[in-house]
Specification:
The protein is an alpha+beta fold and 200 residues long. Helices cover 22% and strands 32% of the residues. The protein has a single domain, classed as Nucleoside Triphosphate Pyrophosphohydrolase, CATH 3.90.79.10.
Length: 200
């Protein structure tokens, strides 16, 4: 896909999507940052710093919504604070379904588009590393993967490359991004379960 094809594909698919909002938890916002690279359009994923909540876990840039703050503003603020990428509300293409985590957060996932090249400045207090995953990889026929737990639960995972297997909640949001924004399939993910380690 060229950069213009990637942008138009996402915009077109989101135009026919009606999101489902959720309430009742601690509000948070994350941003799926799509970098419109003419060679390899990709999304940005982070590995959280190995300290505090969600230590070392895969995530999108994001965090808690402060009192009185709009969700989209919170998501864009967190992108700037965590990876040093300045985005405007005009860069936001749409919003996916809220995902309620086992730890009690209601995560609102925004999709934002920015042009390459991007200069990133990860905050070492919050981010261990930043990773690029191409849109081509995200629509691979081998995705998603499924794991059966000893209790018989079926857990989604996104095995993107060696040592990069992403579970819910981030994996669920990434899967809905793939299905809705990239493939135009109205897929819901709110019932997907999280493995226990993601609750730490």
């Amino acid at each position: 896909m060229t950069n213009s094809a990637a942008a138009e594909r996402i915009r077109g698919n989101l135009a026919g999507f009606t999101r489902i909002a959720a309430t009742g938890g601690r509000a948070a916002a994350v941003v799926i940052c799509v970098v419109d690279d003419p060679d390899e359009p990709h999304v940005l994923l982070i590995r959280r710093a190995y300290r505090g909540m969600n230590s070392g876990q895969w995530a999108f840039p994001g965090g808690k919504i402060e009192p009185g703050e709009r969700a989209v503003a919170a998501g864009l603020r967190e992108v700037g604070e965590e990876i040093g990428l300045a985005l405007e509300e005009s860069d936001v293409l749409g919003v996916l379904d809220d995902f309620v985590t086992d730890s009690g957060f209601v995560m609102t996932p925004f999709i934002a588009l920015t042009s390459a090249p991007v200069r990133l400045e990860p905050n070492p207090d919050e981010v261990d590393s930043v990773h690029r995953v191409t849109l081509e990889r995200l629509v691979g026929d081998d995705l998603p993967g499924w794991t059966i737990t000893p209790s018989g639960a079926r857990l989604l995972n996104m095995p993107l490359r060696e040592r990069m297997r992403i579970h819910a909640p981030t994996g669920a949001i990434l899967y809905q991004f793939r299905e809705v924004a990239l493939l135009g399939r109205p897929t819901r993910v709110r019932d997907l379960q999280q493995p226990e380690f993601t609750r730490e």
